[in-house]
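Worked example 3 (structure in, sequence out).
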């Protein structure tokens, strides 16, 4: 089988799941505060990526240092209207997110061509059947 170079072969290394989902959350809205980012990450990842409370602000710091997000400033949030710092995805962050989505899209196309996404059984049911078979 011949190896074909993918047209985007010079993409940056993959993003961590925490960074990927944080950028994804910020790409869908003008600004978010850290706890809204955390909630969106958990929701968008179907519960598989949870940013622990002690890791939330270090993640925000890293996103700023990498140039992926910009500080917008404090805005009133929630029922109390208490100001919380808000952040927005930067142009660089949008580009990195698009690169990652290109990589993931290619993986999905590859999986489809291998027939891996054709199974109509629910994944939970497939897992249960696998467990029964392995006993």
């Amino acid at each position: 089988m011949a190896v074909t170079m993918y047209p985007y072969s010079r993409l940056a290394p993959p993003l961590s799941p925490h960074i990927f989902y944080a950028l994804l959350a910020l790409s869908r809205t003008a600004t978010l505060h850290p706890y809204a980012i955390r909630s969106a990450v958990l929701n968008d990842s179907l519960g598989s990526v949870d940013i622990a409370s002690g890791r939330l602000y270090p993640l925000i710091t890293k996103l700023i240092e990498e140039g992926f997000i910009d500080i917008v400033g404090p805005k009133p949030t929630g029922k109390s209207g208490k100001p919380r710092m808000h952040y927005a995805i930067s142009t660089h962050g949008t580009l990195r997110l698009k690169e990652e989505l290109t990589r993931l899209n290619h993986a999905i196309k590859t999986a489809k061509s291998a027939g891996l996404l054709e199974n109509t059984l629910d994944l939970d049911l497939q897992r249960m059947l696998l467990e029964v078979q392995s006993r």
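Notes: Residues 17-133 form a domain with the Arc Repressor Mutant, subunit A fold (CATH 1.10.10.10). The radius of gyration is 19 Å.
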